[in-house]
Amino acid sequence: MNPVFILGLSETAVLTAKCLSGYKIYGFDYNKSSIGFKSRLLKSYEIPDPNKNEDLFIKFLIDKAKICKEKPVIIPASDEFVFYLNNNRELLKNYMQFLLPEKQILNIFLNKESQFKKAEEFGFKLPKYKSINTLNDINEIQDFKYPILIKPENFLWKKYISDKSKIANNKKELIESLGYIFKKNLNILIQEIIEDEDYNNFEVNV
């Protein structure tokens, strides 16, 4: 039976391990505070931080895979590990099994600005948005109405900010938030908020 490698030891990883009861499951994460390190459903390993040394992280995975009698099945449990798996798929497929959409498709959905542009290509109407890289770029959003939503472009945001997004109710709050964010070299999107009652909402579970 093929062993299972789960990348990232969040709640998602623990639930995945529970669903795969009966398999030999190994979990990997660089954040020792992740909940999966306390789980008895898998054997956990601390790994090199791919955000600091991607090559060392990939070598660690390959070395672990080589020990296995059969190719492990690898499951990324967060966007962060989807990114690194996607980025190194040609090398990793020689040592492990995984199922991912095409590389260029994943590249679109791992970046919010790319997501929005693709949605617009298909005719979806979106609230006004703008990619912001410096405080000077605020001058390009003078026509935006507050409150404004500050969103990450990619997974790196979660390393420094626990919230999935932030709201700025005025220009002063926007500048204060961006000041902190840009110190972390994070890329962000600014988007108008459409304030209204929630209605005609449909939930889709896949």
Can you describe this structure?
- The chain has 206 residues and is an alpha/beta fold.
- Helix content is 32%, strand content 17%.
- The protein is built from seven helices and eight strands.
- The strands form two sheets. It has a four-stranded parallel beta sheet.
- α1 links the parallel β1 (4-7) and β2.
- It starts with a strand and ends in a 14-residue tail after the last strand.
- The model has no long low-confidence stretch (mean pLDDT 89).
Please give the structural blueprint.
Blueprint: E1 4-7, H1 11-19, E2 25-29, E3 43-46, H2 54-67, E4 73-76, H3 79-87, H4 89-92, H5 103-109, H6 112-121, E5 129-132, E6 148-152, E7 166-168, H7 171-183, E8 188-192
Parallel strand pairs: 1-2, 1-4, 2-3
Antiparallel strand pairs: 5-8, 6-7, 6-8
Write down the Rg.
Answer: 20 Å
Order of helices and strands: EHEEHEHHHHEEEHE
**Biggest sheet, spatial arrangement of strands:** 3-2-1-4
Low-confidence stretches: none
The geometry reads as: elongated
Helix-strand category: alpha/beta
Largest sheet: 4 strands, parallel
Separation, N- and C-terminal Cα atoms: 27 Å
Helix content estimate: 25-40%
Mean pLDDT: 89
- What percent strand? 15-25%
Work out the helix count: 7
Q: How many extended strands? A: 8
